From TrEMBL:
<keyword id="KW-0963">Cytoplasm</keyword>
<protein>
    <recommendedName>
        <fullName>Phosphate-specific transport system accessory protein PhoU</fullName>
    </recommendedName>
</protein>
<dbReference type="InterPro" id="IPR026022">
    <property type="entry name" value="PhoU_dom"/>
</dbReference>
<comment type="function">
    <text>Plays a role in the regulation of phosphate uptake.</text>
</comment>
<comment type="similarity">
    <text>Belongs to the PhoU family.</text>
</comment>
<comment type="subunit">
    <text>Homodimer.</text>
</comment>
<keyword id="KW-0813">Transport</keyword>
<keyword id="KW-0592">Phosphate transport</keyword>
<dbReference type="Pfam" id="PF01895">
    <property type="entry name" value="PhoU"/>
</dbReference>
<dbReference type="InterPro" id="IPR038078">
    <property type="entry name" value="PhoU-like_sf"/>
</dbReference>
<feature type="domain" description="PhoU">
    <location>
        <begin position="125"/>
        <end position="209"/>
    </location>
</feature>
<dbReference type="InterPro" id="IPR028366">
    <property type="entry name" value="PhoU"/>
</dbReference>
<feature type="domain" description="PhoU">
    <location>
        <begin position="20"/>
        <end position="108"/>
    </location>
</feature>
Length: 231
């Protein structure tokens, strides 16, 4: 009976990790496709990103049900309990990452076709790539219980913050010098802020992974004055 219970628990944990891996993969794809849609001004691809977000939401609900089942039936302890609780928190954060990608995609139809001529937009693809890589590495760290990789993700958050500050300054300057571009630049500022939030949430996942793997919390990160509280 004990062996059967352990096997069932292991299978449930594997299923849990598989669902989070799928959810994370979909969130990564949403980020990449949202940025491609922005660069190419591809409204069809942007619409697909918005539609695909429903599957991310569905996986979150499935994980929540599974976590409740595991806690109720298996009563995990110590490391196992930390893993299960981390999984529950992580899916909530990944769902928000998917929402940020969806928000970016929703802006694509609102941005004028001449936006690609704006110099500041050149920074956004690189910023999006770094944020996407952070999400990828944070989820890999969870799958492998890799505290070192999680820590590396946390340390990379400053790169995205620096990108955001640079984009913000560039867009504000551009708007002042070219008042006719204010509408387009405002949309791009919104996009940049969503990318910055993706980086913050990837960092949150990494912090959870670090705690699950080590039982220790990381020191409070320094935050810029321009950042708002977590939503």
């Amino acid at each position: 009976m004990a062996e059967h219970t352990i096997k069932a628990f292991d299978e449930e944990i594997d299923r849990l990790r598989g669902l989070i891996a799928e959810m994370g993969g979909r969130a990564e794809a949403a980020i990449e496709n949202a940025m491609l849609a922005l660069q190419r001004q591809d409204k069809a691809l942007a619409a697909q990103v918005v539609a695909d977000d429903k599957r991310i939401d569905a996986i979150e609900a499935e994980v929540e049900k599974l976590v409740i089942q595991v806690i109720a039936l298996r009563a995990p302890m110590a490391n196992d309990l930390r893993d299960v609780i981390a999984a529950l928190k992580i899916v909530s954060v990944v769902e928000r990452i998917g929402d940020y990608a969806k928000n970016i995609a929703k802006r694509v139809p609102l941005i004028a076709t001449n936006t690609r001529t704006l110099e500041p937009i050149a920074l956004l693809p690189s910023m999006g790539q770094v944020a996407g890589e952070m999400v990828h590495d944070a989820l890999n760290a969870f799958a492998a219980r890799d505290a070192d990789l999680a820590l590396a993700v946390v340390e990379r958050d400053t790169v995205v913050d620096d990108f955001y500050n640079s984009v913000f300054r560039t867009l504000v300057t551009f708007m002042v010098e070219n008042p006719k571009t204010i509408s387009e630049c405002a949309h791009l500022l919104f996009v940049a802020k969503n990318i910055e939030r993706i980086g913050d949430h990837a960092t949150n996942v990494a912090e959870m992974v670090y705690y699950a793997a080590t039982g220790q919390t990381l020191p409070e990160r320094e935050r810029g004055a321009d950042l708002q509280a977590e939503d």
